[in-house]
Design goal:
Elements: E1 7-11, E2 15-18, E3 22-25, H1 27-36, E4 44-48, H2 56-69, E5 72-75, H3 87-92, E6 96-99, H4 104-113, H5 116-125, E7 129-133, H6 135-138, E8 143-146, E9 154-156, E10 166-168, H7 177-186, E11 193-196, E12 200-205, E13 208-214, E14 221-227, E15 230-236, E16 239-240
Parallel strand pairs: 1-7, 4-5, 4-6, 6-7, 8-10, 10-11, 13-16
Antiparallel strand pairs: 1-12, 2-3, 8-9, 11-14, 12-13, 14-15
């Protein structure tokens, strides 16, 4: 049951602490399922942890969160080889796909080796909701700010480009993020950049922003544009889920 149009939910959230399995899914993951329009059966959630090297402990923790949520959990592992023969067919079977955080630079390199840059475009156009957190947010855009290369954040500019804008994550929680985004936009290294505080997501229908949503009241989304050689930031008030 695909979404009505190509849909992406790009976030800086999706998890909450759990006393039983470490983390549980928070409202942003549930919203990715809602955007798919699935009803009358258990939702199918595809999952990728490429950005942290498909660590088995992380996969097990997320599988338990999915069991608690009532989702069928279908991870695509790429280390040390794909765990399915038909990667595109496997992803096409999902209602929504959630991509976890980590190194977006490494994620993009590994995805391209396996042809996922092409595959994800087809999956997105077919109506499977693409979603994720941090690296799993930046990856759908042209680029953004990342700690993939070290403690000092740097730009990444080779995202999949399904969304023709740049992306800033953890905007209120990591001190380098906001000033770096402003500098990169001012210098023209990044273009128009949509940013999220922790707990906030951006909903894109097609290639345009539809709305911002949040699982934490009071948090914000932002757009940073270059105006007359300066970076100008505008707040986008998110809808509370």
């Amino acid at each position: 049951m695909p979404a009505d149009s190509p849909t992406i939910l790009a976030t800086s959230g999706g998890y909450k602490p759990s006393g039983f399995q470490g983390v549980s899914f928070n409202k942003l993951v549930y919203h990715a399922i809602e955007l798919s329009g699935v009803s009358g059966r258990r939702p199918r959630l595809g999952y990728l942890a490429t950005a942290t090297g498909d660590q088995r402990a992380q996969l097990a923790e997320r599988a338990e969160a999915a069991r608690e949520a009532g989702f069928d959990f279908n991870p695509l592992r790429l280390f040390t080889m794909p765990n399915v023969d038909d990667v595109e067919g496997y992803l096409m079977q999902q209602d929504a796909i959630w991509v976890d955080g980590g190194s977006v630079a490494n994620l993009l390199a590994v995805w391209r080796v396996h042809g996922l840059d092409r595959i994800f475009r087809s999956v997105w156009q077919a109506g499977v909701v693409l979603s994720g957190v941090s690296a799993g947010s930046i990856c759908w855009h042209l680029g953004g700010t990342t700690d993939s290369f070290g403690l000092n954040l740097r730009p990444v500019t080779n995202g999949l480009g399904l969304i023709p804008y740049d992306n800033g994550v953890h905007y209120d929680n990591e001190g380098q993020r906001r000033p770096l985004a402003h500098r990169l936009v001012r210098e023209g290294i990044l273009g128009t950049t949509y940013c999220t505080d922790d707990g906030v997501g951006l909903v894109y229908h097609g290639t345009e922003l539809s709305e911002a949503v949040t699982e934490i009241p009071g948090k914000g989304a932002y757009v940073v544009r270059q105006v007359d050689g300066q970076a100008v930031e505008e707040r986008i008030e998110p809808r509370v889920l």
